Amino acid sequence: MQVPTTGHEVRIAPNDQGFRVHGSRATMRSPVRLGKLGRCLASYREFCADKGMKRKRRAGTVAYKTARDRRQRGRQAIRILHRTFNMKVESVYNLRAKHFDALMKHVETSDYEPGTRQDWASFLRWFAQELGLRQVERRIVRRRWEINRLMRRSYVAKGDRSLLPTGVSFDEMFRRLYEIEPWVAACALLMHAFALRTKEALLYRPWQPYDEHGRIHIEYGTKGGRPRTHEVPVISLEDATAVLGYCRLFVASKTESMIPRGMEFKQAYARFYYVVRKAGFTHAKLGRTPHALRHGRLQGIFKGKAGFEPSTRGGCMEQDPKRAKEAAGLVSRIAGHNRTWIATAYIGRYAPPRRRKVTVPERPATQAWIDGPPDSIAETTAAVQEPTALPEGGTEGVSQTGVCRAPLMIRHTVTEPHWRAPS
Fold first, then answer.
1. Cα separations (Å) of 93 from 43, 158, 197, 377, 402?
2. Per residue in 204-223, pLDDT tens?
3. E strands along 29-169, which residues?
4. What pTM, to 2 d.p., does this model score?
5. Contact 173, 405 (CB under 8 A)
6. What are the CB-based long-range contacts (under 8 Å, 24+) for 281-284?
């Protein structure tokens, strides 16, 4: 490899020949040759750059997180082959059936959680498909069925994952986020009101919220690219109007999303979680992330449909299994899932167990979180103490129903749209 002789700084990444240059300038010493592991990792980087964003079955690209997981899982697989099984391949294109068999053996014998085993099987199947190893792909599918006992995964929530058990109200969360970055607080408000995921809230267009029938419609940022419509209102019309009116202050035109102008999606996504971490809403500090807002709204939807609390909040599903199943189906559809049983990740078990009898102990009535959240945002914030007085002009254009009592307390600073044109 010939090194440039110019005086500017260069960085030369590993290439096909497995060479790289150390240092910061072009006047460098002799290049260092990579070993077989380094050459295989370099070839996998090129493989991911070419095929890492492709879907397995249909056209389009996968999400950023999926592409990142493929890169990390592939590097881990290559190191396992080299260091555990002593299979020192020099390129990913040299992988054959025996290498995939070794990786599946590693998955079977390692102390992985069921979800991790499923992720490994899905990754290896995609990897074999992109390498053109169709027989290996079919073998992985058959082998997965053989070890189904090891890969059985439970989606049933064991407890309440909303904000309620933490003792931190949404008003406090909104206030902390607003003090750091107001548009992040507005995105959290959308997640709380309409049970949105983070990506859906960032890409939400508050000026285009309804379909032709006047129902809330989520089109951008959904999982799998599947748009969905709320078949029933999840909050009152007055509350929804107030939430959308507040979020419209952060967009410059009727076709823009909640992402500020001048930001790409990845930048806005990273900024959102930076503000969340700075406000202290992490698993390490609070035991919850903003996704807890989605859990709380979906549990409230279940209660409104079924008439009793979900099992995650001490409710007894056995008192009316039929209504519980109908409510679980509604929760699943509003959350954007095709399978009804996925609702168990939010509400817990909604039907009696089939194979064994389980005695559910009665929870003491002193646990305040059994009561669950109110059915509307107005009731959620009703317990917040009203301010003694607001500055003049502080309630212009704001619904007086208490839809966002905490936003109302601080919205006296909002006198004009928040959006800023890029400098």
1. 8, 43, 37, 55, 61
2. 999 988 887 778 899 998 88
3. 32-33
4. 0.61
5. no
6. 281/173, 281/176
